[in-house]
Amino acid sequence: MNHYTITAELTTRxxxxxxxxxxxxxxxxxxxxxxxxxxPYGYAEIRMSIAADDLLQALATARATLATTGExxxxxxxxxxxxxxxxxxxxQIPALVDPPEAAExxxxxxxxxLAMIERGELSHARVGQRGTVIARASAExxxxxRRG
Length: 148
Hints:
Elements: E1 2-13, H1 19-28, E2 35-38, E3 43-52, H2 55-67, E4 73-80, H3 81-88, E5 96-97, H4 99-106, H5 110-118, E6 125-127, E7 131-135, H6 136-147
Antiparallel strand pairs: 1-3, 1-4, 2-3, 2-6, 5-7, 6-7
Helix pairs in contact: 4-5, 4-6
């Protein structure tokens, strides 16, 4: 049995995922250690780990699992975790900050950062049901754009 990383971009914009809908997603996908974030195009993106005999079984499991949430997929990527880890390497993991740290970097308040996340202006990922992380580079990019 292998482990596969599934990345599914949903037809739903990140800004449209309210707290109740997000909690439902994370609860349904908890056995697969799911994280919800924003794709580069502003859509909700789910990343999860699935154990399967082969890639096709992993894809079928991902489709069936996501169907239970009521969400529709726009795109899905499946890769063997070992291969994915080898391609990415530990040095590819971006520096992450929480909303208060992002606020300090950008030069705004924490509520403003949360509003930017809601509007899809700041890339982020949900960790568990309550945590939010933001790539430091994303916060720095927003800071530079605001100085414009």
